[in-house]
Amino acid sequence: MHDNRQLVEGRLARFNDERVTPAVYQAFAPVTITAWTVPDEPVPFADAVRQKYSPIDIGTAWGKPWGTMWIHATGSIPKEWLDSRGRLPRGLATELLVDPGFTGGPGFNAEGLVFRPDGSTVKAISPYNAYVPVDHRQPLDVYIEAAANPDIGISGFRPTALGDKATAGDGPIYKLARVQFALRNTVVWELQQDIAVLGGLMHALPVDLPRRHEILRAFERMLDIVDPEDVAGTAAAGRAALADAFAKPAYASAHNLIAVGHAHIDSAWLWPIRETIRKCARTFSNMVDLMDRYPDFTFACSSAQQFAWIKEHYPELFTRIKAKVRAGQFIPVGSMWVEADTNMPGGEAMARQFVAGKRFFLDEFGLDTLEAWLPDSFGYSAALPQIVKSAGADYFLTQKISWNQTNRMPHHTFAWEGIDGTRVFTHFPPVDKYNSELHANDLAHAQSNYREQGVGTVSLIPFGYGDGGGGATREMLAVTERVRSLEGSPTMELGTPIDFFRRAEAEYPTPPVWSGELYLEIHRGTYTTQANTKQGNRRSEHLLREAELWAATASVRSGVEYPYAELEEIWHLVLLQQFHDILPGSSIAWVHHDAERNYTAIAGRLEKVIAAALAALSGKGSGRGRKALTFNAGPYERDGVAGLGAGIAEAADEVVPQKYRRGYVLDNGVIRAVISAKGLITSLTDYATGREAIAPGTVGNLLQLHRDIPNQWDAWDIDEFYRRNVTDLTTVESLSVDGDEVVVERVFGTSRITQRLRLAAGSAALEIVNDIDWQESQKLLKLAFPVDVHADRSASETQFGHVFRPTHSNTSWDVAKFEICAHRWVHVGEPGYGVAVANDSTYGHDIGRRTRDDGGTTTTIRLSLLRAPHYPDPTADLGHHVLRVSISPGASIADAVAEGYRMNLRPRTVRGTESSVEPLVRVSNPAVVVEAVKLAEDRSGDVIVRMYESRGGKAEAMLTAGFDYSSVECTDLLERTTDGPVTVGAEGAITLRLRPFQLVTLRFAT
Ligand SMILES: [Zn+2]
């Protein structure tokens, strides 16, 4: 036959657009609307409903950026829509349609939540989901809380003032477009969904496949049957013409999709946290409404924090969610407090993400969630498998690695192996997104992209509008009803993440293994952007360690009440701010201003907790008997004071800089540093090896300024070409000595930096305090230490251990790691010799190497101190920063671990009557590090001690408890009894036998 395929496809497209779509709503009618504009920040319904509402016309401009307007809509369905007995004819549905003036897609735009007069929520309003079901038997009486959330313009990455209320302006940004009754023809709507699903499938199929033409001819018959003058009257016949095409089952070997409704709601991003709370209410009320009408619909919802917000701010909605959780439709997933970044949170904080998340789900729903759900975080630390398993979870899910700019991950379902050897069953949905609209192209992509073809048959597909919320829609559920088994399409069934994991694991019990981190080959700037937020996180994590340690010690030793509630509240806030757009620095200015304010408040509250505990432990007394008692919260002895205890610190002499040539030398008998007239380190030696650390022909403490203009995603990305433009900041404004410090001042661009170099008595680390007034634009400031070390790999601290990465660029995978994340330290070494660089605020690093003319190798360690991206916060990072760094020549990894704690935990001296405080626990082997000492989450008063093997080798250690206890047992992170590598001897001696990087939690019943 002649080929008229394109002609028929064109006919279908025009008929759908011009005849079917306009026929879905067959009548409209006005409602009465009045409005009240909230003067500033949002108010609860109970306040809003009491205000005076004024008439408002359609077409009225409204909404300053971030403003809120409440609309009161009343009226009755026109009688002519009903039959003579007041009933709605079959095939019709009455709705209220609301368009506050949408300008784009859901989540990045105006949106609203509809309330009944009693304050209960009906559903939300957003683009592509702007209807409210209306009962035609009742008069309409609803309140719509419309939010004028500005579009921050994610597509253009242009600097915008809209991300901060102070600069966003106060002119209206939306125009009220529609609030009216509508009469929906449900048969025409079903025909519209048929065309969308079958038409989508047709276009996704190859043109040489018979199935494609079978669908084409079915459409041709439908087009002949449906009367363009009477679509409503002929839609049912049109649907019948497509029935045969829908009746053909899927190929026997079709890929199987388990579809799970989802709404990835970023806990803050291009909106502040306060707006996320409302976004959660909107999306969740939509999902609960959809569940009422689609009993098979399942919706996976992560982040205990988001549930907690609903519990606090929308208790009525929370009750309905609880019922849906019991019904198995609303599915809490993820086990974490928020979908955190996983590169930067410290070990204990990463553990607490799971403790807080799982505890919430257990307490509120009685559910032990079994998966980690992180579809969108920017890379996954190699410590995660052990943390996930230690929290009692079995599965891990992400898809973000599909964003890699260089390499494609070889697996979609695999065993992910962490630094300690723990493996966790992991899935990357091959649809490559967490917010599918279930378009046929997505389904086809999931099938063709799936890397386990031939051995695995199933993948997960999360569907629903995401990022700014939205979730699933009735149109998406129409797809799930139509493609259960449809020839040419993968099969699809609605299910839960655990349904998927169980099935995938059963069919694929020995999947391939991926060892080590899941490094994301994009968004490398997120280790550095918004330095204040990162510093706040680091400080908070260490203050929490101190607060818990000293409060637990004071409770055990002095019977002081342990501040459970205060610590829990602070932990929750710290955990929230580790969300994957807050700690990474990729949010609008408002979010980071909030974060900085919160960190300041957290520090104040924790200082109070610490002060109260130290006061109790140091003894009250007054007058002459009072001594200076030094508390050491670190795991190792310091200045003669035991780790985790207190004592009288040994007095240390000052190491005074000596004039040397045109610069200075710092020498404490342990190490010796020569600082040139330009303030650069020209020599750095340790007395133990006598070896020079600084590579020949180079200098250390070299500040380097790079042009930093990525192609897109400004706050997120450092593109590799940044290295091509660099200015070495070697011009010195002044070089002087202040007490025991060498002070170097430099001016560059419109910025200024003062470096203070100091060597403490007995210390093997030269400390550099960088005091920076940073006023640059799109620049990256690096601090470089080129060292004479031949290292194939560098070690970087991660949670409960360290990760190795190549220093060379053999493969595309190695090349892509040109910027890496480390916690408190990095290390490069040869057998018997190494150099460690530690920090108190910095995460971004790069470590590379080159061969010199003399045949030796220069390995250069650089810290990424500051950036200055323009989007989404145009003033990110500008201002004053104090960033501490240290370099230790002749250091082992064990030294690096100790220096990392030393840099981040300062001893505290208080005056009191006591001359020592015995640590609650002592560990005989320094390879085994105590990460946390606290009282149990169940508030029983039991003492919890968390430790890990820190050097990457097997370790045996004796643990001595300095308090009376009745029993000791190993637990998981949630403090539930498990088997563990601990034996208790006859005399109560506790022996630990740990594998490399093994994490262990002990519970002492008191
Ligand atoms: Zn996200």
TrEMBL record:
InterPro entries: Ams1-like_N, Gal_mutarotase_sf_dom, GH38_C, Glyco_hydro/deAcase_b/a-brl, Glyco_hydro_38_C, Glyco_hydro_38_cen, Glyco_hydro_38_cen_sf, Glyco_hydro_38_N. SUPFAM superfamilies: Families 57/38 glycoside transferase middle domain, Galactose mutarotase-like, Glycoside hydrolase/deacetylase. Residues 521-599 form the Glycoside hydrolase family 38 central domain. It holds the Pfam family Glyco_hydro38C2. It comes from the Bacteria. Keywords: Glycosidase, Hydrolase, Metal-binding. Belongs to the glycosyl hydrolase 38 family. This is Alpha-mannosidase. It comes from Antrihabitans spumae. The lineage of its organism: Bacteria, Bacillati, Actinomycetota, Actinomycetes, Mycobacteriales.
